[in-house]
Amino acid sequence: MVLLREARQQSDAVLIEVCQNGDSTGFDELVRRYKDRIYNVLYRFLGNREDARDLAQETFVRAYRGIGSFKGEAKVYTWLYSIAANLARNRLRDCARKGRNRGTSLEALEDAAPGYAEVAASTDRTPRTFAAAHEMDEALQRCLDELPEHYRLVFVLRTFDDLSYDEIAEAAGCPRGTVKSRLNKARLLLRERLEALDVL
Amino acid sequence: MDCPEVRDEFSALLDGELDLARRSAVEAHLAKCSDCLRELDRLKRVDRVYRELPKQAAPAGFEHRVRASLRSSRLRLRPVGLRRRAVWPLAAAAAMFLLLIGSSFLLFPRQPAEYRMAKAPEPTAQDAERALRAVNGAEGGARARGTLEAADGAMLSGETLPEAEGVPVPSTAATERRLNALAIAEPMADALGEASPDEKPVSDAEWKYANAARAASKPRPQAIAQRFGGIEASPQLDEDIGMDKADALSVSPRAEPEGATMFDHEPPESSVSTNGTQLGLAARPSIPAKGQERPKDQPVKDNAEKAATLLEVRVDPERSAGRKTAAEEVFSGARGGAAERRRVRAEAAEEDLKEVPSHKEIAGRTFEFRDGTWYQREYQDEEAVTLPRDSAELERLCDLHKELAEILALGERVVFRLGEQWYRVEPAPEVKAAETATNQE
């Protein structure tokens, strides 16, 4: 059995191999290594902490199940992201079917718009601007939530985890050219919304 | 490039994903188009505000939740080799083999020859001498050889063997065909490491002659008798060849207590072992090719020597044992998928029962697993503050002590120390209730 301490010094490929040999220590380390990244991307994609936590957890469970068939041609994290993305898309469709309210509407946010400009412009964080900053974070998240999911996914992967276009293509399961055009469109749509909120 | 074309490239430009040629073209356009430049600036700001959003870390105890989820879904990692090694095809093949064997017994309940599984008495030197007498006698020799071939089950007694000059080597057309076939098989056996280069394949009949000769020339070791069976008087043979009971030879495998099978008694293509010495078929006369005259210059003095010259057989018990194992494997495989399935199930059950490791080192501390709880090694039943998994206090502690996330990932129940205070982390009440319900079930 590989010790946890040893596992931390191993590359992803070695950890996968350890798992494929039936030792779960390698998997524990993979979870430790990627849980925050997966959770953060899921949170930004779903806009909801509970869903993000559940799906991040489910992502690792699915990965554990499928680790035997992981060939090592892809990077471990793009593989994890592709699992997470599929789960998240399914969750969004479920929510849409059930008509679940996923947070504050943009209209409501627009009412508070004047404050955002101030927050966006401020560099220091006083208690007042801190509270406003929190609100602004919420507003930015809601703008993101309003994006169609295929635009949102590539934007989130690029902006919050700095994946390259090729990695995004792998994780999202679409060609590199599509990633480029979707990212462009996502930024244009967000620009419009943020301008409406007076953030830009 | 015109404005819309340039704007399509803005994202790739911002992300550093444009190739040099396109990048130069876009930059050249931006140098003279202020509208596009402003547009690019706005897109940059979009990117900036989002990149400034705080990164969200996975909640405390996330790893523990993943592990608990894996446990509850009874998922376990198995070596890929084992998983990929399909058991079903093997089981199906074994079942098919068993079916074929079974049906052959039904269709052909008894072979005509005397190759039978019977507990045979120890062969004696007298038996062997009688055998050789029969071999050398003008009529008896032919009959005995024919019988031996019949007993061998491979060469039926239709063709008797004409006396060869000097050495009684089976030399009918059928025998020669068989010997030639064996000679063809020799390189294959060599390639499989079953024969040394100078070992030659022999026919079963030859092998038996040699065994009998050795028994006649010197006392046969117990090991030979045990492994290769004995000589049994066979009434059936008596009738067939009209010999005295004592003279009728039927080489038959013994029903050995250690479970040796008929495969043990099969004369090996190229080696037989009796006393631990490496096999040598040194004095074996060469087998003439089809249509070739057998050399006539092989002096043979007496019966025992004649047979011993024909073949000198020394047996390596390890090889025999190895062959036995292979035979048993074939049989155990043939016995069917059920045994294989039972074995695989037992392996899986064993793996399921595998305990979690008894201790682990986390964040410089050693934790021991006892009675479903991970205890920090130093714990001596001191008073501990109990914290449910979902308590705010635990969350606060996790924020203060980053190493706690890893410690809590050990398991559902963990006892650890922070400063001078001991803490006992227990499952959240609803999890506890669910556990109790499961246990009651």
Structural write-up:
The complex is a heterodimer of chains A (200) and B (441). Chain A has 200 residues and is mostly helical. Chain A folds into two domains: 1-102, RNA polymerase sigma factor, region 2, helix turn helix motif (Rna Polymerase Sigma Factor, Chain: A, Orthogonal Bundle); 103-200, Arc Repressor Mutant, subunit A (Orthogonal Bundle), CATH 1.10.10. Chain A contains eleven helices and no strands. Chain A has helices at residues 4-8, 12-20, 25-46, 49-66, 76-98, 106-111, 113-121, 127-146, 149-161, 165-172, 176-196. In chain A, helix 7 (113-121) packs across helix 8 (127-146). By secondary structure, chain B is an alpha/beta fold. Chain B folds into three domains: 3-51, no CATH class; 125-315, no CATH class; 359-440, no CATH class. Chain B is 51% helix and 8% strand. Chain B has a six-stranded mixed sheet. In chain B, helix 3 (20-32) packs across helix 4 and helix 7 (87-107) packs antiparallel against helix 17. Chain B is flat.
Instruction: Classify the fold: give the CATH topology of the largest domain in chain A.
Output: Rna Polymerase Sigma Factor, Chain: A
Helix content of chain A: over 70%
Task: Tell me the β content of chain A.
Answer: under 5%
Order of helices and strands of chain A: HHHHHHHHHHH
Query: What's the number of domains of chain A?
Result: 2
CATH architecture of the largest domain in chain A: Orthogonal Bundle
Q: What integer value in Å does the Rg of chain B equal? A: 40 Å
Assign the CATH superfamily of the largest domain in chain A: RNA polymerase sigma factor, region 2, helix turn helix motif
Integer average pLDDT of chain A:
83
H and E string of chain B: HHHHHHHHHHHHEHEHHHHEEEEHHEEH
Oligomer type: heterodimer
Binned, the helix content of chain B reads 40-55%
Q: Main sheet of chain B, how many strands, which sense, barrel?
A: 6 strands, mixed
Give start-end ranges of low-pLDDT stretches of chain B: 113-120, 137-172, 181-203, 213-302, 306-336
Which strand-content bin applies to the residues of chain B? 5-15%
**Count of individual helical segments of chain A:** 11
Cα-atom radius of gyration of chain A: 19 Å
Measured between the Cα atoms of the first and last residue of chain B, the distance is 73 Å
Q: What gross morphology of chain B would you assign?
A: flat
**Structural class determined from secondary elements of chain B:** alpha/beta
